[in-house]
Amino acid sequence: MAMGLVIVVGMLLYDLPWTSILIAIPVTCVIYVLSLIIGYYIAEPLRLLLLKTRAYRAGVPVKFEADGRMHEADELSESMQELVEKLEAQQADISRENQRQSEFVSDVAHELRTPLTAIRGNAEMLEDPDLPEDMRVRFTGIIISEAERLSRLVNNLLQLQRIENTQTVAEELRRINLRELAQGVVDALHSLLEERGANVSIVGEAPDILGDRDRISEALTNLIENASRFIDPGGHITIELSGLHGNSVIQVKDDGVGFGDIDPQLLFDRFYRADMSRARTTGGTGLGLAIVKSIVDQHDGIIEAVNLPEGGANFIVAIPSIE
Predict the structure, then answer these.
(1) Which residues of the chain have pLDDT under 70?
(2) Cβ 230 vs Cβ 256: under 8 Å
(3) Around Cβ 80, how many Cβ atoms within 10 Å?
């Protein structure tokens, strides 16, 4: 319309023929219509994007997709979709972490309840002035045993929290000879293994790895100590070392009863015990294998567990080798 007015004013000022009006009016109308079409074409993708954004803010599941009508709007839609996916992933991570913490608190409360109940019950029995001396000694021993198990549980909880909340820093990484490390762990556990009647042997060789020596020792200690709980006196534990597909493999095998027909991955959950009653009598806290898995994960390794055909369990750790 503005162009039409300009043409009319121009005809009046410059004495243009009035027939120009007959040309100017339809041209102006065509230009006006074209401007409306172009404006709609430009604004419609943005309007749809605005509606989707409002719907997403209201909690409606929306997928931001490029429709190919406008390059800039398509790029904005793709950016919005990436932002939405990132936000949803973060929300899912937060939800899982909250669930994990809730389960952890519940598990800890359950595990603490058992030794505390035993300590209280036996302490109340000791209040009886007519209690025979042999019973007094027995109840006192139970209290001491449960207090020690409670102390181990708390220490393992703190240890697991420390491992999971920290990352292995570069300064702590060293070349580790697994044969020497395994021998050192077995020597350190000599008294315990002798007390439980466990015969331990180390076979094979594995390439060196790059890792935190203290934590790898801790993981292997837990595996050997765990195996010693589930073998009969005079049983055997074999630490087999090898290399496979760029990984250094540590296998801790025993000739005990195995872990039964369960999902092996459950063994690495906090407080899980394949045999609850037996683990309690041997002093297990249900955290040793969870600690092992956290250490192996920090070294970019994997851990698996299998029942051996001839009986017993085999825990397999694979950690990337170095030349």
Answers:
(1) 1-44, 67-73, 100-101, 103-104, 106-108, 110-111, 114, 159, 161, 163-171, 271-286
(2) yes
(3) 18
- Distance (Å, whole) CA 252 – CA 237: 7
Give the list of residues 6+ apart from residue 231 with CB closer than 8 angstroms, or none. 196, 198, 237, 254, 255, 256, 312
Contacts of residue 221, Cβ cutoff 8 Å, sequence gap at least 6: 185, 188, 189
Render pLDDT for 263-290 as a digit per residue (tens, 0 to 9). 778 888 776 655 443 444 445 556 778 8
d(CA 138, CA 126): 10
Contact between 123 and 142 (Cβ < 8 Å): no
Question: What would the two tokens of residue 228 be?
Answer: 């010693």
How many residues does this entry show for the chain? 323
- What does the alpha-carbon distance between residue 25 and residue 319 come to, in Å, rounded to a whole number? 82
pTM of the entire structure? 0.59
Distance spanning both ends of the chain, measured CA to CA: 80
Three-state secondary structure call for residue 261: coil
d(CA 177, CA 318): 14
- Which residues, including other chains, have CB under 8 Å from residue 181's CB and lie 6 or more apart? 213, 216, 217, 220
The total of other beta-carbon atoms located within 10 Å of residue 287's CB is 23
Q: What is the DSSP letter of 271?
A: T
Q: Which residue, chain included where needed, has tokens 């139970």?
A: 142
d(CA 258, CA 315): 11
- Alpha-helical segments (H) within 127-197: 133-165, 178-188, 190-195
Hey, what are 197's tokens?
């009647």
CA distance 181 to 214: 10
